[in-house]
Automatic annotation (TrEMBL), chain A:
The lineage of its organism: Eukaryota, Viridiplantae, Streptophyta, Embryophyta, Tracheophyta. It is a lipid-anchor. This is RAB isoform 1. GO terms for molecular function: GTP binding; GTPase activity. It comes from the Eukaryota. Its main location: membrane. One of its GO terms (cellular component) is endomembrane system. Keywords: GTP-binding, Lipoprotein, Membrane, Nucleotide-binding, Prenylation, Protein transport, Transport. GO terms for biological process: protein transport; vacuolar transport. It is found in: Endomembrane system.
UniProtKB/TrEMBL annotation, chain B:
Transmembrane segments: none annotated. It is found in: Cytoplasm. One of its GO terms (biological process) is intracellular protein transport. The keyword Transferase applies. This is Rab escort protein 1. Keywords: Cytoplasm, GTPase activation, Transferase. Belongs to the Rab GDI family. Pfam families: GDI (PF00996). Its main location: cytoplasm.
Length: 200, 540
């Protein structure tokens, strides 16, 4: 959920899209500035955070990756809960991945956080020769469904930071809490605090 | 459940170390532990949701799930001699629904109803340790249980003085009682501090019934009742040692008390000893499943297993056949408690077992009440304990009740959900226990007289009780099916306890049995989940 306080906003962001569309690559490029050509399907990492500084606020994205649970359409409700933003990713060289992206949009709309900022990302924009999905087609679909749209390339970094920056700008800064919030358990914060002070 | 008709691509690969059927909490913890230990795991569920018998569901789906698991499935014909059909056992019975208002069902999707309520976390219990060390604490948020009450014979609810500050603030206890209780808490603390050997409670006291020890140190009946039932949560009447099925000895009584005390203040932002996950218990199996997925476990919901495949030559377990027709193979199979492979010999054995032992089997009587108001004004989430004999003279089992509000996102605003449970051997007694507690807590509108408030039975009671809008009572089986073939194991049903500790112990023991020498849920290093760039800054 996007919770604001002192112009620091924490926002949960979820990634959706077909296997192989480049969800993890986008995150990896955004968070670490890296690209791995033959990235294995997502295992081993599924939770990242990254901060974007706007003029009026600082947005800390808590980015959830699917951990592969989308492969057989088995994402847990936990994944969507409290998400302030979602990026639906498809591969511009693969028409099926675009059709599947539309299904994910429907699913998100059904899960229903009406304030959620949704972005449609046509990834692999560096592979123009193999393009199957016209940018105009995706753009008009996005407009009809109130998504904002960008073509990105995790490989060349084209538009990747812009995508997250645009999402950050669109987050309602003073969003009324639509979900109840509770406490996140942190192990022995008191101990850690003492540890830090005695070391300094 | 939005009528999913997605057809899946075939599951790849087709051979695993472990196949787990059912995403209940024990299955999910084992899937996470096995994946973390390097095993290849496939985790399937028949349902379109996570959690199986540990799920939190919309009201309509909750009712449908209970109904569908209240009768055994049709026994299919064995297709061939190398396959054993998988059948569903009925695990719930005597389901009784009373609807006094259509508001709850109209808002069905706004509920997250626990199938296995009431259940809470103690802040210092071993389940919280596992949640922290696996890093799944970042997937969940919690709220404190505000307070606990214990019901007395006059139908009054007293606050439970479970800590020193609570004793201090309590207004119903006499000075003598306060001093004795304070002294007792100090005694227990000294016992565990291990500083002085002479501070330890003598061994013979540790082995004796806790109730006798409490009497010996001079605690009043009221205080004994609070400690035995509201803190230690003894299931049965401890004053009646002869007929009590579960006599708590001093050793386990004081360790439970110590756990309670160490839970208070473990997390600076938690109010008391207990917490509950926002969106319900069903979040817990989901979190373990996500953990398992991060470690490579493959997830497929909406995928029933139709039969278990046997090796023709040796008669041993080989794999499973899915409803899609696909055959998958593994060295080991773990099944949710509702599934049993129908081996001809065990089919007969289990039949005779049912006939012979039905009346002696302990069950958990569970109830869910939806009300229009809180048991206590200004209290959102609270526990209420009705000790034996407090509701009626023949009451032999403790009734636990747990009220939750909209602030944990389990019901719409303006409504409250209360879970009840009690141990019983038959449905009639079980329902009597729950109904007595419901009558003590709520006012029940007369049916056929809608619109007007029901007549409060205890009209001398000035407080206005919350009105019951909807309720469901049911019996849940506890016994576990014993494996039909080597390499196939059944997991456990939700137990009768209020916390997760017994369950986690059973899961860990099970894991150690099937994977001797492997570490049970190793600590997740920060770098695993946040591969060395946890908090990088980026300026745009």
């Amino acid at each position: 959920m996007a919770s604001s306080g002192n112009k620091n906003i924490n926002a949960k962001l979820v990634l959706l899209g077909d296997v192989g569309a480049g969800k993890s690559s986008l995150v990896l490029r955004f968070v670490k500035g890296q690209f791995i050509e033959f990235q294995e399907s997502t295992i081993g990492a599924a939770f990242f955070s990254q901060t974007v500084a706007l003029n009026e606020a600082t947005v800390k994205f808590e980015i959830w990756d699917t951990a592969g649970q989308e492969r057989y359409h088995s994402l847990a409700p936990m994944y969507y809960r409290g998400a302030a933003a979602a990026i639906i990713v498809y591969d511009i060289t693969n028409q099926t991945s675009f059709d599947r992206a539309k299904k994910w949009v429907q699913e998100l709309q059904a899960q229903g956080n009406p304030n959620m900022v949704m972005a449609l990302a046509g990834n692999k924009s560096d592979m123009l020769d193999a393009r199957q999905v016209a940018a105009e087609e995706a753009q008009s679909y996005a407009r009809e469904n109130s998504l904002f749209f960008m073509e990105t390339s995790a490989k060349t970094a084209n538009n990747v930071n812009d995508l997250f920056y645009e999402i950050a700008k669109r987050l309602p800064l003073m969003q009324p809490a639509s979900n109840p919030s509770g406490m996140v358990l942190v192990d022995r914060p008191a101990d850690k605090a003492t540890g830090a002070s005695c070391c300094s | 459940m939005e009528g999913e008709t997605t057809s899946y691509p075939p599951i790849e690969p087709s051979t695993f170390d472990l196949i787990v059927v059912g995403t209940g909490l024990p299955e999910s913890v084992v899937a996470a532990a096995a994946s973390a230990a390097g095993e290849t795991v496939l985790h399937l569920d028949t349902n379109p949701f996570y959690g199986a018998h540990y799920a939190s569901l919309p009201l309509n789906d909750f009712v449908t799930f209970l109904q569908s698991h209240s009768q055994p499935s049709e026994v299919p014909e064995a297709e061939s001699d190398d396959s054993i059909p998988l059948v569903t056992r009925s695990l719930y019975s005597s389901l009784e629904i009373s609807s006094h208002s259509d508001e709850p069902l109209k808002n069905s999707r706004r509920f997250n109803i626990d199938l296995a309520g009431p259940r809470v976390f103690l802040c210092s219990d071993s389940m919280i340790d596992v949640i922290l060390k696996t890093g799944i604490n970042q997937y969940m948020e919690f709220k404190s249980v505000d307070t606990s009450f214990v019901g007395d014979v006059d139908g009054k609810l007293m606050s439970v003085p479970d800590s020193r500050s609570a004793i201090f603030k309590d207004r119903s206890l006499s000075i003598i009682e306060k001093n004795r209780l304070m002294k007792f808490f100090k005694l227990v603390q000294a016992h565990f501090s291990e500083e002085n050997e002479e501070d330890r409670i003598p061994e013979e006291d540790l082995e004796s019934p806790f109730v006798e020890f409490l009497t010996k140190i001079g605690l009043s009946q009221k205080l004994k009742s609070i400690i035995l039932y509201a803190i230690v949560n003894a299931s049965y009447d401890q004053d009646n040692i002869k007929s009590c099925k579960d006599v708590i000895n001093t050793k386990s009584g004081i360790s439970r008390l110590a756990l309670h005390h160490s839970s208070v203040g473990r997390f600076p932002n938690a109010n008391g000893a207990m917490i509950y996950p926002i969106y319900g218990q069903g979040e817990v199996p989901q979190a373990f499943c996500r953990r398992a997925a991060v470690k490579g476990c493959i997830y497929v919901l909406r995928m029933p297993v139709v039969c278990v495949l046997k090796d023709k030559e040796y008669g041993t377990y080989k794999g499973v056949k899915l409803v899609s027709g696909q055959r998958l193979f593994s060295s080991r199979l773990i099944l949710a408690p509702s599934f049993t492979p129908l081996v001809p010999s065990t089919a007969q054995a289990s039949k005779s077992h049912d006939a012979g032992h039905t009346d002696a089997k302990e069950k958990v009587a569970r109830g869910i009440c939806i009300t229009n108001n809180s048991i206590r004004p200004e209290v959102s989430n609270c526990l209420v304990f009705f000790p034996p004999k407090s509701l009626y003279p023949e009451q032999i089992a403790l009734v636990r009740a747990f009220q939750l509000s909209n602030n944990v996102a389990v019901c719409p605003p303006g409504m409250f959900v209360t879970y009840l449970s009690a141990m019983t051997i038959d449905a009639v007694e079980g329902k009597k226990l729950l109904t007595a507690a419901i009558n003590a807590l709520f006012s029940i509108p007369f049916s056929g007289n809608d619109g007007s408030r029901g007549i409060d039975n205890s009209s001398e009671n000035i407080e206005v009780k919350p009105t019951l809008l909807w309720s469901a009572l049911y019996m849940q089986e506890l016994n576990k099916f014993q494996g039909a073939l080597d390499s196939i194991s059944n997991m456990v049903m939700p137990d009768e306890h209020l916390d997760y500790n017994h369950l986690l112990d059973a899961i860990e023991r099970f894991f150690q049995e099937i994977y001797p020498g492997k570490e049970f849920l190793a600590t997740s290093s920060q770098s695993n989940e946040h591969p060395n760039y946890a908090d990088s800054e980026l300026d745009s």
